[in-house]
Each structure stands twice: as C-alpha cells, then as structure tokens.
Design a protein that fits this description.
about 45% helix; binds 5-amino-5-deoxy-1-O-phosphono-D-mannitol
Length: about 375
C-alpha cells in the first residue's frame, strides 16, 4: 500500500499534485460558478456579505490563508475562529454571513458543535469543506464542497490541507464573481494559475533532497521559530505545527513583524529560524526582520523563490522554491515545510504516522 514510500505521511505529501488536480477538475470544467458548492448555492451565496470560518488545527490555518484571499480578491470581510473557542463565546451573529466549516474528517467534535452553535444563533447559510463524503459536518450543512484528496491516513494533515486551500480559493473567486469583482480576464488568469499548480507543487516536491539536509541539522535542536508575513504567515504556523506534531521539536510561528515585540529575546545561535519568504508585497519587510535575527546570531533557513533575490551567506541558508503566480503561492509553500518536518521526525526516530498523544479524528472534547 505504501509503494516506494516509507510512511503514509511521505506518500501523502507526494500525492499532492494528483490530489490537487483531482480537486481542480470541476473548477476547470465549470469556472468559478456557485453550483460548485451545491444546487442551492446560487441563491444562498448571492446574499452573503461576509464569511465566518470555523475550524481546528491545520484546517484553522487553511482558513487563515483564506481570510487574506477573501479580503483582497473578493473584498468580503472574513473572520476565522478556532471552533473550540467560538462555541463557548457569546458570539454576535450576522445572518448575512456565510459560515464555512473546514474539516478534513468531517467528524471533529468541536467543529461540529461550533456549527450547531452558529446555527442556533441564526446562521442559515452554511458550507462544509470536507474530504470525507457523507461525514457528520457536511450532512449538517446547507452547502458542501468535497476536496478530492483521497484517504489521508497519516495523523499529520498534508494533502487535505493543500486541497482545502484550493476549495477556499474557489470560494473566494466565486464570491468575487457573484459580486461583480472578477473580470473575465482575471478569471482566466486564476484558472490558468490553477492549471499550473500541480506542476509547481511537483517542483516543490523535487526539493526533498535539499530539505533533508536541513532537516538533519534541525533534528538535534529542541526549539525552532517559523516566520512569515501576510498570506504566508499561516504557512509559517502550519510549518511549526507539523514540526512539533511529528518530531516533538518545540516550534512557534510568528508574523515576522512581531519579532521585536517579544520572541526576538529567544534568538541566539542555537535557535534555527525558518522563513517563508517568496517574493510578495511584504518581502522587503521580511528581509529587514531577518536582519534582526541575524544580528542576534540566529541561523536562518529561508524558503524563497527566484524573484526574492536572496543569496547564501554565513548563517543564511536558502532553498529556492518554485515561482508560482502570486495568489496561489501559499499552496506551493506548504509543501517544503511538510517535508522539513517529515525528515526531522525521521532523524529523531519518532512515529511519523502516529505521533504520541494524537488521533486522526478528534471526536472528543
Ligand atoms: O479533521 P479536521 O480537519 O477537522 O481535523 C482538525 C485537526 O484535528 C487537524 O487538522 C490536526 O490539527 C492535524 N492532525 C494536524 O496535522
């Protein structure tokens, strides 16, 4: 069942180009039409003027990427909430907002309860983005988008995450179109970007030998920092979660601009700092945050595309990630941090597919 791979996690990381092309297929056929989300979606989505995303763990980070997309592409306000917090808050409902639950398994108890709570507050436009057909959460939602990642066995979510991102991108573009904020040219360019995405992800997978060398250096460490800004900040969060979840190395992620407000105190020559730094509008800011780290002796491991113009120097290691047209860059950059965590865990000899204390579906509180 594992084929040439040593673990399900490794297999699932490598299945991403296929998982993505399978998930993209209906989009490429139909374009960004509401029907992608169900027969009743046209009517329901036409009334939406905001989006509330409810999720846990990795799914929450997928939602956090989507917030940047929804605001910048569709000009739709978005709130992303950790389900276990939302369900116990005295949240103020806005029935014109769409409630999106993100859950790979469709069975996560806190996400299910958060959905029930949102409905009890009067939210009746609900969409589930899920990888498991007919599971509890999609069954309780008005609209559904199934990602086509195939079964994910490793506890650490990989292909479910990147396909969730695609679903959220499709939602963003669809809302933008409904609101008249997506020109035909823009739609075509997004569809082209989607078409090329599996190829870019394959290029990222080809970086595995280089990333493994970094992972060997990480393995003896007990702490690591991950930095990103803007739409790449949630990818830093996801990288830190992957690393701690399977290698048990303590990892934290920060938006790089927050460094000087506290975490910079942790940085010394024993602290590896991973930076997600493709060329985007915040790159120059990230570069100056990196200088702050270097000045304190922190060793930098930078994932940067060709356009970021980084060169290696003492204490600054660079891996060139594939260039990928703007907005979908977080999908491509999720892959190297998964590989880094995987190889660091291998080096440490942990149980990669079944990390201690964790379960694939969290159906208890
Ligand atoms: O099935 P779900 O997407 O609802 O699961 C939510 C989290 O438990 C899950 O994403 C968890 O954080 C992953 N194991 C992380 O890799």
């Amino acid at each position: 069942e594992l084929g040439p791979y040593s673990h399900f996690m490794q297999k699932e990381i490598h299945e991403q180009p296929k998982a993505l092309s399978d998930t993209i297929e209906p989009l490429l056929e139909a374009g960004f039409v509401p029907e992608l989300f169900g027969a009743n979606a046209k009517e329901l989505l036409s009334k939406v003027d905001g989006v509330l995303i409810l999720a846990c763990g990795t799914s929450y980070y997928a939602g956090s990427v989507a917030r940047y997309w929804l605001e910048s592409i569709a000009s739709v306000p978005c709130q992303v909430e950790i389900a276990s917090e939302y369900r116990y808050r005295d949240a103020v409902a806005n029935p014109n907002w769409l409630v999106v639950t993100l859950s790979q398994s469709g069975e996560t108890l806190d996400t299910m309860e958060a959905l029930k709570y949102a409905k009890s507050l009067g939210h009746d436009k609900t969409l589930s983005i899920c990888n498991v057909r007919e599971s509890a959460i999609p069954r309780s939602s008005e609209m559904v988008f199934y990602t086509r990642a195939g079964a994910e066995i490793g506890v650490a979510s990989t292909k479910a995450f990147t396909t969730q991102l695609l679903a959220l991108f499709a939602l963003t573009a669809t809302l933008a179109k409904i609101k008249g904020r997506l020109s035909d040219t823009q739609e075509q360019s997004y569809l082209d970007a989607l078409r090329h995405l599996p190829g870019s992800v394959q290029h990222a997978l080809n970086l595995e030998p280089q990333i493994k060398i970094w992972a060997d250096r990480f393995a003896p460490k007990e702490h690591a920092l991950f930095l990103g800004r803007g739409v790449h900040y949630p990818i830093a969060l996801e990288g830190a979660l992957k690393l701690k979840e399977i290698s048990y190395i303590h990892a934290e992620a920060y938006p790089a601009g927050e460094l000087k407000h506290g975490p910079l105190a942790l940085v010394d020559d024993n602290m590896p700092v991973v930076v997600i730094a493709p060329n985007d509008v915040l790159l120059e800011k990230v570069k100056s945050n990196m200088q702050e780290v270097r000045a304190r002796g922190g060793e930098l491991f930078v994932f940067a595309d060709l356009d970021s113009h980084f060169s290696e120097s003492e204490g600054v290691h660079v891996i060139r990630t594939p260039r990928h047209a703007g907005v979908l860059s977080p999908v491509v950059h999720a892959v190297p941090v998964q590989i880094l965590a995987y190889h660091a865990a291998l080096q440490r000899g942990t149980d990669v597919d079944k990390p201690r204390n964790l379960a694939k579906s969290v159906t208890v509180e």
